[in-house]
Amino acid sequence: HIRYNGVWVRQVYVDPKTAVFDISVDATVDCGFTAKITDPKGEVRELSTEDDMLSLMIDDPMLWDVDAPNLYTAEITLDGGDTTTVRFGARMCEFRKDGFFLNGRYLKMNGVCMHHDLGSIGAAVNRSAMLRQIEILKGMGVNAIRTSHNPPAPELLDLCDEQGILVMDEFFDEWTIEKTQNGYHKCFHEHAQADVEAIIRRDRNHPSVIMWSIGNEIGEQGRPDGWKIARMLSDTVRRVDPTRPTTAGFNHYETIFSNRLAFYVDIVGHNYKPHRYAETRENYPEMRLIGSE
Fold first, then answer.
1. Which of 151, 146, 154 minimizes the C-alpha distance to 184?
2. Residues annotated catalytic, as ranges
3. What is the pTM for the complete model shown?
């Protein structure tokens, strides 16, 4: 059978004329598989392989965009009979020091920090309530969500794929330093690396996810050796998914540079104090920045 979250449709290359993906399947035994690909227009093609990976080339791809969230579907069937379906999209994401570019054009991310609860409805997943939230946010001009400060419900990512919302997928609100008595600091050393891998395996097919956030206002910002955990987490992300950058939400404007922690993420997130953005740009002119909160 296919292992849990064992299918990855990895984007290898994309431009307006061509998109190339590697489709890999992690199964319990070595066997081939068939991939039935359905494009956004409903046209279907089939590919098959005798091993655990095949290459998919799409001519004139229908790109996923905030204004046109085009989604492809891959139905994967092992030679042994097990099957699963994943959705994916083709898009060009480029983070430069002068901004974010989606499919070749500059796009200002107007984002919100989105906690998992649904107000008076509660914290249990309610797809229609989440869709209502997104529709209201889009009416405000929102085109991006940061999953503050934990991995989102898969249903939220499905909706972001469908609605054209960019996502900063966030892992942790704590590393090893306590914020709350029963926080993640109790589990970090034992579970952090495996949890990061599991989250990425679950979420990496979503075209809406454009970056991974390794933490929010973590206490290690003030420690001389705080960079060590940042390096470990960023290295883990790049090993599991080298296609997306890492970031973090920092609220210390001095120590993250003096202790070098900020240099171990691809994009430095600044929480609050936008009047200091220019200071960071002046001191580190090549650094990629995002206003994370």
1. 151
2. 217, 293
3. 0.97
